[in-house]
Amino acid sequence: MSSNPPPAVLNDPKRALTRAWHSLETWAVVTFAPTLLRWWGNPLLHQARAARPLPWRALARVIPVAAGLLAVVAIVAWVITERALGAAMIALPLGVTLAALLSASVSGTLVTLGQLRAGGHTPRGMTTAVPHEIVWGLALVALWRLRWLIVAALIVTPALMIGALHLDVTAFANYRESALALGSAAPPEQVRLLTPGAGIPYFRLAMRALSAGLLALAALPLLASLGVSSALLLRDTPLSLTLALVGNIVALLVVLGVWQVVTTVYFLGQGLEVVRFALIAATLAGTGGLAWLVNRQNAELLVNIPPDEGII
Q1: DSSP structure class, residue 309
Q2: Sequence-ordered alpha helix ranges (H) in 183-201
Q3: Block means of pLDDT (10 residues each) for the chain, length 312 residues?
Q4: Which of 27, 112, 153, 162 is deepest in the core (most CB within 10 A)?
Q5: How many CB atoms lie within 10 A of CB 20?
Q6: Based on the number of CB atoms within 10 Å of its own CB, is 2 exposed (0-12), middle (13-18) or buried (19 or more)?
Q7: Are 298 and 140 in contact (CB under 8 A)?
């Protein structure tokens, strides 16, 4: 009795990952394109864009050129092992990205409190949109106010990815040297991260570096929405800002913790890297899903604000 051979794709991880990538690409277009268009047409965001427009044509030329130049500098610093330049090309992208992430919730709080004051504390007085559209608009306006900081984050994202890859490759090279030198005496938690034969899992590290930059951008709507939540919950400027910062940090630690586990867990190596790829995609999508859940709760908070309640 003969058994059927396994599909060729199971014996070819690269082919499996290529198919997974094309499937993910199709799913992303079908899933996110309508959402992005709906965001872009949000009434509150439309007003903010009209009041403070961006020079799109200039940015379409500047962003790729600047991002490419920084990426080249990061690669050169890695190749020539220039420590000072390498450290700068890690610190600069990381600092810009963290500034954008930590500012998102604060901006969300300030925008929401300002809109509540301007709207006479009546949710429907802000706009003719439905509550769910209003709270999304508040979060999007908060991000629009950080547009130049987000543009800077976009420019440094490739350098951030290269810096993350540089750090990981250096760490794994040390793990490899330790495994080769110490043999069975090497730390098992380090050896497990390597491929069989004490190899460096370059593809895994590349996925990790790529997802690091994408995760930072994907977290912005969630963090801005948490800022909206703090304003709607407390309606007190000092307390709302404090809660926004605390919630921002907690959310970042949770998201980064999940990402760290998914991108480093050792038993998803070799043929299961496609599973890791799917989990990374799910982490990115889940971050957006959390933003949707937060804004669903924000819509309920918004409609329950008493019309005559003041803002401190």
Answers
A1: -
A2: 188-191
A3: 44 58 61 73 89 94 96 92 87 95 96 81 56 92 96 96 92 86 77 80 89 92 96 91 95 94 81 84 90 94 74 52
A4: 112
A5: 17
A6: exposed
A7: no
For residue 195, list its beta bridge partners. 199
Strands (E), 46-188: none
* Phi-psi category of residue 130: left, alpha or beta, with phi > 0 → left and psi -120 to 50 → alpha: beta
Helix (H, G, I), strand (E, B) or coil at 195: strand
Where are the domains positioned within the chain? 57-303
Predicted TM-score (pTM) of this structure: 0.83
CB contact set of 233 (below 8 Å; sequence gap of 6+): 240, 243, 301
The DSSP 8-state label assigned to residue 305 in this structure reads S
Torsion angle, alpha carbons of 105, 214, 260, 25, to 10: 130
Q: What type of residue is 86?
A: G
Question: What long-range pairs does 252-259 form, CB within 8 A, spacing at least 24?
Answer: 252/101, 252/219, 252/223, 255/215, 255/219, 255/222, 255/283, 255/287, 256/215, 258/283, 258/286, 259/211, 259/212, 259/215, 259/283
